[in-house]
Amino acid sequence: MQFGKDVALKLLLVDDSVEAAEAIVSGLRNAGVAVRPSRPEDEDQLQSLIDGPPQDLVLVAQNSGLVPLKRVMEKIDASGKDLPVIVLVDRLDETQLLQLMNMGARAVALREHMDHVLKTVRTEWIDLEARRSYRRLDAQMRELERRCDALIDSSRDPIAYIHEGMHIRANAAYLEMFGFESFEDIEGMSLLDLVSPKKVDEFKKLLKQLSKGEAPPPRYETEAVTPEGGHFPAVMEFTQATYEGEACLQVVLRKQEELVDPELAREVEALRQRDPLTGLLNRQTFLRALEDAVSDTAQNATPHGLLLLEPDHYARLLQDIGLDAADDLVAAAGQRLASAVGPDDIVARFAEHKFAVLSRNSDHEKTSRLAESLRKAFADTVVAARDNSLNVTVSIGGVQVGEKIANVAAILSKASQGLQSSIGVGGNRYELFDPSATDRAEEERVAAWVQRIREAIANDQFVIHFQPVVPLHGAPEEMYETLLRLRGEDGSLVQPMTFLPIAEEHELLGEIDHWVIGRAIRLIADRQRVNRRTRLLVKITQASLQDDKLVEYVGEQLQIHGVDGRLLVLQIPESKVFTNLRAAQQVQQGVAQFGVRVGLEQFGIGLNPFQLLTHFDASFIKIDRSFMNDLGTSAENQARVREFASKAQELGKQTIAEHVQDAGSMSTLFSAGIDYAEGHFLAPAGPEMDYEFQ
Description:
The chain is an alpha/beta fold. Residues 164-214 form the PAS domain. One of its GO terms (molecular function) is cyclic-guanylate-specific phosphodiesterase activity.
């Protein structure tokens, strides 16, 4: 699970001070944690919140008077819910800590140290999600075992489960093959008893290897024997399995005469594992090998390396050689890759033009050397594709598989992120994620991105996409949301969440804001020259609130390009205004002299968002996208949206709903009195301002 802006933390705050609770919410949001807070003012409200939709965490002040800590703990304990409690304290000693733990608190956080609060919240949230995931997986596993059990019973294949060499399960086909009437006749019998005496020694060696955790062979030919002494040639297929929570082996045993020619069967199986174009392993076979490697890491702490590779500028290459030569290019790249890896490395065609390499028993240094050697193998060699000779470079994303990341989905996700990051900063490089060496890898990655961002600012390599903001009532007007993208060297677009966190860390957000504002004003001027009056909404960051030159820059750009300031709307996140209120007020008042308006985005997720509007004169409020989730069917979200619309109308503020995805949501927004809507249901964002507002 990814924790951040796209996953909302449902937080129950028990604190007498609204300002103190709001400060914690803002601190969490400023750290990138999306929060959906609730604050009860009495025990009845607390009980209602506990009984209502599931909460994630409870933060309770140790000295809370409205709802005392002891009552909070009693109510949560009585609910029977897995609802972790973090107690907020001003100071801490050993006796106090033990008392709070004995009361049932999961953790204690020093409220005056926001870093400690943030770390404690994240730790408990991750632990909670791990417990939830375990419960879901446990239920799914029981259901899966039940279904598998039913399938095994009805299967025509003779199937048995073996634990420590003994039968613990066998289906009817298996019992019939050996002439047993019921499972009781075979329960606890050794599998060796069903193997011909002349094959027993060889079979014992196999069982000993399997007991040591070695991978079972896909096929094992032997001679079976029935209790009456009958012999027949047989083939066994082994698979690691679990039965009633115990690790065991699943054995499928078939009579040899029922099978096709063994040599032919092996050839067919080999072909089934290969990609027909490149001759490399196919995706399914590679994933099984990766699962085995991950299992080995989890059980034995054995390190392995995974690399994902993709030719740089693939679309451009196809333009050069023609679409009809695409297969030749992929085949040539696969051949080059196969010749550059080691004899023990597992290579596969993972997707259309993406390849994967699994380097077994490989530590960070060895995996890094392999990634660099593969990069050089392509960069230093001409690849022949039909009649074309190409210098093809590759981008590589890798993961050092270790105990900290022994999960196939997480490994592939990290490798894919590294691959996309390598592509985004120009290609012909590799990024290797190693949980045990994250500092080194992170420094290299961040340095490359900082350089890439600086170049984009200097060389005008950012791109603006536009999403129409459609009025739901009154006369139509042209208004667009501006969305920032970064143009990659191959023409692809890099999404902002890939580079904005790095830009923030290295104090580049202010420069990016200046670029976006300047570009927006020029675009408005271009539209004015063709008699199109278009309003643009531009996001600015916290860095701009601290920028003494921002107001002056906006005024200069408007004057230079002859733009009506009323066509520019600056948007600031609600949480940033709350924590930088004085600076936000100065920016709003400063740009107001040019006619520029300021709006609040991500509105509604604070404890009392409308209280902020008594101190900050926002022209627009943009409702946080989390309220659009299942808006057509969620009574809770519908009620909040109607509340926002009603209070905004009372205050003379206009409302915008973003991330609108379906007709049901549109109907709710219209009836609630929301002024504007935007989202994929109306029109996706794109590089042109061509929406028909009429």
